[in-house]
Description:
The chain is an alpha+beta fold. It is built from eight helices and seven strands. The chain has helices at 3-19, 27-35, 50-55, 57-66, 93-97, 119-129, 133-138, 142-156; strands spanning 24-26, 44-48, 70-73, 78-81, 84-90, 106-109, 112-115. The strands form two sheets. A five-stranded mixed β-sheet has the order 1-2-5-4-3. A two-stranded antiparallel ribbon has the order 6-7. β6 and β7 (112-115) form a beta hairpin.
Amino acid sequence: MNGLYDEFLKIAGKITESFGVTPLLYGSLGLQRRLQIDLCPGDVDILLPSAMLDEHWPDLVAWMRHESYALQDAHEHSFVQGRAHIAFASNDLGGYAGIEPGCIPMVEDLGVCYLLPTLRQYLAIYEKSLTDSYRREKNNGKDADKIELIRRALAKCGQNME
């Protein structure tokens, strides 16, 4: 396992235990888990229910500090500990990419349960990201590259792209 994924499992397990919510592994690290190839993620992106970030943000900040993380950017909900960067966002995939949270599969690894989008769901997420000019410019085509990887993986397992 890589260090970021290990860190995700540690944080995800403690979030579930402390707050009673199931986190969603998002971004490159999540896609890496689905594709089973190294995408060299630079951070851990975790989606949580909106209420968790809206109503319990101070509790989450205090909890992350207790876990030796420093708040890096309150607006971005990001924390840092050494080389580990963790960012939280609201699980609004329904509004963002038409993916209802109840349709995202739960996986379990080393006793930790978390949500992980399917390849089709990741395709919808990254295709939506291409409509965001800020993200297109910021990521230097990385999202388009990920879309191509997802399409190849889906084609390889014989899933229709329509």
